[in-house]
């Protein structure tokens, strides 16, 4: 099957085919994904919590993101690879340079958090030839200002701001936009008002696509937000396998004949 590009995302919206994305942060996961029909991989800055055990996404930078992007790129997935621009990599003037670094390392696009306020930054990166995915609604890098992780769009003014953000991003040239933790009716309004695809997480079914953190889908997360569905309980499966291994070693059952050589 052929490589998925930002153009494929736009075509899917036109054809009303749902777009599916997941996060991935390492080679084996990207390898598994590459054999599926998933459309896109996000090397998300959720890396901080789900892989590195850090408290929030403010704690990872370009170095960590590049390290994990490299691992995903090595799997050569046909999926579109989007790299998350980490906190302070695009707000203070180095946006094009950092987006360019991601592109040089094999990302097909970058994602950054923010709407209207960041449309200038988006324009500059797009002008350099690097596709940008927007991210509006709950933007975890701004949790301090937002007053925590909450659903966005409760007030009329918040709802109207979300629409302005989406429009501003489309005009600035994003190829797609993530809508996170927003009331579904608002995500629906945004989806209908844009010609670029909306990719939702905790924003209901009326979007052009969905994204989940793969650790949530696999049942590997410590903290799972209300909108994340676990499709399997890998934590349970892994801990059972470990317990069985420990038991077999203690009982002298492992390694059995087929697992060692006798001279
Ligand atoms: O970092 C991440 O995993 C994300 C998704 C939740 C969209 O930004
Ligand atoms: Na992110």
Condensed summary:
With 263 residues, this protein is α/β, with parallel strands linked by helices. It has helices spanning 6-14, 27-34, 47-50, 62-74, 95-104, 119-127, 143-146, 156-172, 184-193, 214-217, 234-250, and strands at 19-23, 40-43, 80-84, 109-111, 132-137, 176-180, 198-201, 209-212. It folds into 2 domains: 6-232, Phosphoenolpyruvate-binding domains (TIM Barrel), CATH 3.20.20.60; 234-263, no CATH class.
Please outline the helices and strands.
Elements: H1 6-14, E1 19-23, H2 27-34, E2 40-43, H3 47-50, H4 62-74, E3 80-84, H5 95-104, E4 109-111, H6 119-127, E5 132-137, H7 143-146, H8 156-172, E6 176-180, H9 184-193, E7 198-201, E8 209-212, H10 214-217, H11 234-250
Parallel strand pairs: 1-2, 1-8, 2-3, 3-4, 4-5, 5-6, 6-7, 7-8
Bound molecules: 3-methyl-2-oxobutanoic acid and sodium ion (NA).
3-methyl-2-oxobutanoic acid binds next to β6.
Please provide a written account of the structure:
With 263 residues, the chain is of the alpha/beta class. It has two domains: 6-232, Phosphoenolpyruvate-binding domains (TIM Barrel), CATH 3.20.20.60; 234-263, no CATH class. Helices cover 40% and strands 14% of the residues. An eight-stranded parallel barrel has the order 1-2-3-4-5-6-7-8, surrounded by six helices. Helix 5 links the parallel strand 3 (80-84) and strand 4. Helix 2 (27-34) packs across helix 4 (62-74) and helix 6 runs parallel beside helix 8 (156-172). Belongs to the PanB family. Catalyzes the reversible reaction in which hydroxymethyl group from 5,10-methylenetetrahydrofolate is transferred onto alpha-ketoisovalerate to form ketopantoate. The active site is at residue 180. 3-methyl-2-oxobutanoate binds at residues 45-46, 84, 111.
């Amino acid at each position: 099957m052929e490589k998925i590009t930002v153009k494929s995302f736009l075509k899917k919206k036109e054809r009303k085919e749902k777009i599916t994305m997941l996060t991935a942060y390492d080679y084996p996961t990207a390898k598994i994904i590459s054999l599926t029909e998933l459309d896109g991989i996000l090397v998300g800055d959720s890396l901080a919590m789900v892989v590195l055990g850090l408290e929030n996404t403010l704690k990872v930078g370009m170095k960590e993101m590049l390290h994990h992007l490299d691992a995903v790129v090595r799997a050569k997935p046909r999926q579109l690879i989007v790299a998350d621009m980490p906190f302070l990599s695009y707000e203070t003037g180095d946006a094009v340079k950092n987006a360019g670094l991601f592109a040089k390392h094999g990302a097909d696009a970058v994602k950054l958090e923010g709407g209207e306020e960041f449309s200038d930054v988006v324009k500059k990166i797009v002008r350099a030839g690097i596709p940008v995915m927007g991210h509006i609604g709950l933007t975890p890098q701004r949790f301090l200002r937002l007053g925590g992780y909450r659903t966005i769009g409760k007030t009329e003014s918040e709802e109207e701001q979300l629409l302005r953000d989406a429009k501003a991003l489309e005009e600035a040239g994003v190829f797609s936009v993530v809508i996170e933790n927003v009331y579904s009716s608002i995500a629906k309004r945004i989806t209908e008002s844009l010609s670029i695809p909306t990719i939702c997480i905790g924003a209901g079914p009326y979007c052009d696509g969905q994204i989940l953190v793969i650790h949530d889908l696999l049942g590997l997360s410590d903290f799972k937000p209300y909108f994340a569905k676990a499709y399997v309980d890998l934590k349970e499966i892994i801990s059972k396998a470990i317990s069985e291994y420990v038991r077999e070693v203690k009982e002298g059952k492992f390694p059995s004949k087929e697992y060692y050589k006798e001279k």
